[in-house]
Amino acid sequence: MTTPRRAPGGFPVVGIVGGGQLARMCAAPAAELGITLSVLAEAEDASAALVIPSAPVGHHTDVEAVRAFAEHCDVVTFDHEHVPDDVLDELVRDGVTLHPSPSALRFAQDKIAMRERLTEIGVECPRWAVARTAQDVEAFAEACGGWPVVAKTPRGGYDGKGVRVLASAADVADWLALAAEQGGGDGPLSGGVLLEERVDFVRELAVVIARSPSGQAASWPVVETVQTDGICTEVLAPAPDLPEGLAEAATEAGLRIAGELGVTGVFAVEMFQVRHPEGGHAAYVVNELAMRPHNSGHWSMDGAVTGQFEQHLRAVLDLPLGDPTPRAPWTVMANVLGGDYDQLYPAYRHIMARDPGLKVHLYGKDVRPGRKIGHVNVSGADLAGLRERAEHAADYLQGVVTE
Ligand code: ADP
């Protein structure tokens, strides 16, 4: 079915561009609230298309496909940040209600625009610069006190795929050449290469916030995100042993960014906790913004009174927000990455028998090595025990352990 069937009783249709797991995980709270979802899916078997009956197939770069999709929706939101500007502009011209708005979304689409804006509003960031030549890269490394420095593609990166640690300018020669080729166009490197000091961080944190068009905002506790090879593998909610005042400062920064940038919907701020704040600096620097439900908020589906997917629906519909308070002292989320086994269901018997308190969320995706195919959540009072349980279940689903 391509045209969404609206539930009787005055309920709206929320359209989501992109049929990944984030769109899929909106389905359960939408069903509970009687809200109809429609998803513009990349393929008939996209993760969200398997559970949402209204899932026309179309690409997010195809203006006509996106316009035709939006026509049947009361509000349109996103599964990812890759819808191009010209498509967003057309939707605005058509009078489509978009959350987040294109003017906010561009700060999550373009890391150079994000760094400029955060610097303007005084948010703590790593030292950064834009490079177009090898000399620019060398000058930046010198300003940072030497190598290594970090290079990023401003647009289109995910899960660390557009991030490199440089030992010399030669390590980024290919990106500089692409930037020169793309200059003036709209390629991922047309604005140049983003350089950042390599932050010697203690650990990575995230703040997830929801903000509605009328300006109501709610935040979940600051979490720790554990990364392996540039991919988030585990989230500890709340982040254990935060230095005094850091949770408040990081949350305040997140809320301020959301307000200043006019973000609507669920919004994540990825941060680095840093070791030695000096001269009044905060004990964190902001790494990255995501304007959608985020991996660092998956714990809230089972661990908070209101999970991030329900909250996102409330926010984009400008309904009053739900209570984000945790239901337990700790919740641990472990991502399930694609491993050696393409048959996942047989693992259910073992992990469900071993741990009835564990919650499993799989995304209906084909198993490919390293691909995020699901996650597990477990809540309680003993953090070390919860980590062991979550990691075991994820490892078992991945085929890393067999008992
Ligand atoms: P992506 O958008 O692909 O997720 P990020 O900018 O979030 O890329 O970076 C991915 C990972 O690379 C981060 O989680 C962090 O571990 C590392 N990283 C990114 N920027 C820096 C930096 N300036 N200093 C040190 N490590 C960094």
The CATH class of the largest domain turns out to be Alpha Beta
CATH topology value of the largest domain:
D-amino Acid Aminotransferase, Chain A, domain 1
Q: Taking all residues together, what is the mean pLDDT? A: 95
> What is the number of helices?
13
Which second-level CATH architecture of the largest domain applies?
Answer: 2-Layer Sandwich
Broad shape: globular
SS strand fraction: 15-25%
Bound molecules: adenosine-5'-diphosphate
Biggest beta sheet summary: 9 strands, antiparallel
Query: Ranges with pLDDT <50 over ≥5 residues?
Result: none
Structural class: alpha+beta
Distance between the termini: 42 Å
The domain tally reads: 3
Radius of gyration: 21 Å
Helix content: 25-40%
Describe the structure.
The radius of gyration is 21 Å and the shape is globular. The strands form three sheets. Strands 8, 9, 10, 11, 12, 13, 14, 15 and 16 form a nine-stranded antiparallel beta sheet that branches. A four-stranded antiparallel beta sheet has the order 4-7-5-6, sandwiched between helices. The longest helix is centred in the middle third of the chain and has 16 residues, at 246-261. With 403 residues, the chain is an alpha+beta fold. Helix content is 30%, strand content 24%. The mean pLDDT is 95. Helix 3 (63-70) runs parallel beside helix 4. The protein contains 13 helices and 16 strands. It has three domains: 13-98, Rossmann fold; 127-197, Dna Ligase, domain 1, CATH 3.30.1490.20; 201-398, 2-Layer Sandwich (D-amino Acid Aminotransferase, Chain A, domain 1). It binds adenosine-5'-diphosphate. Adenosine-5'-diphosphate is lined by residues 126, 150, 152, 157-163, 196, 198-199, 204, 227, 230, 270, 287-288. Adenosine-5'-diphosphate binds next to strand 5 and strand 13.
